[in-house]
Amino acid sequence: MNQTTHISAADDTICLTTAQAIVRWMANQYIEINGEEQRVFGGGFGIFGHGNVSCLGEALHDHREELPLYRGQNEQSMGFAAAAYTKYHLRQRIMFCTASAGPGTSNLVTSAALAHANRLPMFLLCGDAFMTRLPDPVLQQIENFNDPTFGVNDAFKPVTRYWDRICHPAQIIQSLPNALATMLDPADCGPAFLGLPQDVQGWTYDYPAAMFDRKVHRIRCQAPDAAEVADAAEILATAERPMIIAGGGVQYSGAVEELTKFAEDRGIPVVETIAGRANLLNDHPLNTGPLGVTGSNSANAVAEKADVILAVGTRLQDFTTGSWTAFDKAAKIVTVNVGRHDAAKHLSTPVVGDAKLGLNALATATKGYKTPGSWTEFAQSERKSWDAYVAENVSHGNRPNSYAQAIGVVNELCDPADRVVAAAGGLPAEVTANWRTLKGGTVDVEFGFSCMGYEIAGGWGARIAQAEGEQDQDTIVFTGDGSYMLMNSDIYSSVLSQKKMIVLVLDNGGFAVINKLQNNTGNESFNNLIADCPTIPQPFAVDFEAHARSMGAIAETVANPAELGEAFKRAKAADKTYVICMQVDPYEGWTTEGHTWWEVGTPHITENDKVRAAHVDWESSRSKQRKGV
Fold this sequence. Notes:
By secondary structure, the protein is of the alpha/beta class.
């Protein structure tokens, strides 16, 4: 017990500072997972400054065993690590992030946006200016001349699910349970933010002792409405060419087994979203492949002909739907989703509720239904052709190095339980299309926000989570040179905390995937590849190996996929973070098959003939676009 704490037997209260009360409360929140009780908060990531070190830092020190605090190198990367941590734990366990007032806090805005877009909970405890305003303006304070209450922390309002500024110690009696309820709500989960003015952090209050009792939480499983299930079942019963879209929500609901059985009993082909990769294993006969812009010929061929689409646990992002050109306009969509906003998209027939309960209810309501065998066989034939394409695409011989080849090498040599992490640039598409799932729930491709810099930081967060479990396998990070340059300092974090990662740095000399998009829309290469930047007189390559070594990692550079395979074996055998660098061709070796149309803005008027032609070609596919709400 902190020395400043005193308990009043008369009214059963405990006198604590605001900061002490927040931390003590967090340490006593538990969650039941598979019959076992664990702390909701696995710990946190923190960088201290004048806005959080003296009060919140003091409280965290006294609970450093219950709530281990990982020292970050960058607030934004701390948030990415927290997002990857909770994604690994299927949103059942959470990390907090604490940052000082000013730039430390504003650095977390991007992380909050990533968590918000991906529906991931994280708890942000950020410093703020003094509530009394007596010392104003203080160091790093943003002054709004017409509204003194308006500051940096208000920037979090659009990118968090719960936001509060603690103006008095008593507020947290209400705010803390509300924040956690939001973070654990399957339909509304996302980041929660508390602004903590520097003086209020240290103010005391006589809190009710019951506030700090051990509290066990459970994730709510919302049953679907019977009438909605009946409507959906009526549509499914008429399907001649049904298809299931399996999203990330299938894993969060723990509904993989239910989805698999539902599909198997009816012979329905299953396609996966980017977030839903690793719902089904690669060799499952109904796994028809990834869908959409970064998808597969097999999944997209099935989607184009499907007459009924059952979308489970997906927000139907444009990369999944091909900007709504992937489906026949007459196809009927049934959506099972715990979020009513997602369930009602594009005139879908909604089944609002937990994916597991929703699938079980639909299974009962559609008992006896069987997909025509010719349709199932068509899907399986398409998948067989796609498998042959991937096998050729990842093979290496007398051709330029590519992302796909690197993915194939790692896929061949990794342990089935190893976790793969990728994010922005070309690698999300290449991993989604070419990775062959060996074990469920082992792929983290962050494409909700497609955020550069997530890769290494997310790998660190995933590794922290992975090391907590019984299966202590490797975390494998795929990153391009662009994302590496943006954010790499958690290589150092992983070495310091002894949380080994294997990082593959695939260097294509700049932002090659955007250069590809630039060229595909008729534009000349400009300001993406280092070689095409007019403000760079003498381009040169970064020595990524030396840089990684300087942060304490083992590192080596390889010349080709064959050498990569040998290096990967050494990385698997190593006992600390291992970085493997390989140059890949910025123009050749991209996965060229499996893409649907994707809507991007192109100039309607231009003097450039190639840009004009690309615009006309791009717009030619718009007639396929499904209109909806």
